[in-house]
Specification:
homodimer; alpha+beta; eight-stranded mixed β-sheet; 43% strand; globular
Chain lengths: 107, 107
Amino acid sequence: MRFDHVAQQVPDVAAAIAWWQQMIPGTRVLYEDETWGLIEAAGARLAFVMADQHPGHLAWRVSDRELESLAAEHGKTISPHRDGTRSFYLQAPGDQPVELISYPEPD
Amino acid sequence: MRFDHVAQQVPDVAAAIAWWQQMIPGTRVLYEDETWGLIEAAGARLAFVMADQHPGHLAWRVSDRELESLAAEHGKTISPHRDGTRSFYLQAPGDQPVELISYPEPD
């Protein structure tokens, strides 16, 4: 298990990316479209999401096997995503969503 | 500038730390009292704060000199904290608080 990213709800992905690029020198844009963005900003991967699509959350990466084991343990259903990742959410104390996510395994 | 921590508002610091210790194997408690906690959880430093004391936020660490320069640039006042750190907050897109923080310099 390894910390993967922070996701924040923003009204405008492009405007959010522009703000962070100005704020944190050397910010790299890893992905950007109108409804989802991902940057690497001085040691953190920060995702921008739409309020009607995803909650703001913290995500930890696990293996496929760990994901299935943890989902079963917590009685959760795993959702596939368009980029090949799979994940489910838990609620941490303070009503803070936590995502457990697995990435496609390399061949 | 380097990513430092995520802070989340929780109703009970001890209960939050217990939840995360159960959730993420190997979580280390770096600090804990009734109003503030700090853990290291599989690659992320996660702070727990009280709603009446701090907003939930993401924090990036800077040097004292950078902190003063950035505060002046953004017209912000630097606040000292009980642990010797100094910081100020900005609002990122999506009304997301961002803390810029400096730590006491080693002798």
